[in-house]
Amino acid sequence: MKNMDWSSLLIRMSKGDEEAFRTVYEETRDHAYRLIYYLSSSKEDVGDIMSEVYIELLRSADKYRPEQPFFAWFNGLIVRQVRNWKRRNWRLYRIVEKVKLLADHSFDRKAEAKLSAVGDQIELLPILRKLPLKAREVIVLRYYQDCSLEEISTLLDIPLGTVKSRHHHALKQLRRQFEEIHGGKEKKDYVY
């Protein structure tokens, strides 16, 4: 890498200078790509994580301190974004598993296998977007931000009982929407 004045570039970036961002991007993209490629568990995610890294770089540019080596700081930023990506994927998996658990437990193994197979492929974001905002807030804070129900109560400035109620109803709505995706076929497999 060229001997860059990273501090001034990042200061300019934090003030909205697009040319400074372009320069930083051009000088760091190959490095960032390689590091993300080696750290991520899914090579298909590298492009998305790369975008997250540069979004976070824009947000964090004013936090860089000139006394620290730029690439050490930038590597830390990359590692955190890869971890965040993995954590988000894990939360998505947990939500799917929670929806499965809340599904009627009285169905047979054939229906369970179908539910499991579909659950592995489900795209939850469109389903989450169908939830009312108050329910979506609780689900996102609980499973994407890993907040406890007590923390959600504090964040939203609502009673803990209200959080628990919204959480319960949101999971029921997710389960209902999950079942609707699969139509009547799977419902025939349920044993009532």
Automatic annotation (TrEMBL):
Keyword set includes Ion transport: no
Domain of life (superkingdom): Bacteria
Pfam families in the record: Sigma70_r2, Sigma70_r4
This protein's UniProt keywords: DNA-binding, Sigma factor, Transcription, Transcription regulation
RNA polymerase sigma-70 region domain residues: 25-91, 128-175
Family designation: Belongs to the sigma-70 factor family. ECF subfamily.
Name of the protein in question: Sigma-70 family RNA polymerase sigma factor
Lineage: Bacteria, Bacillati, Bacillota, Bacilli, Bacillales
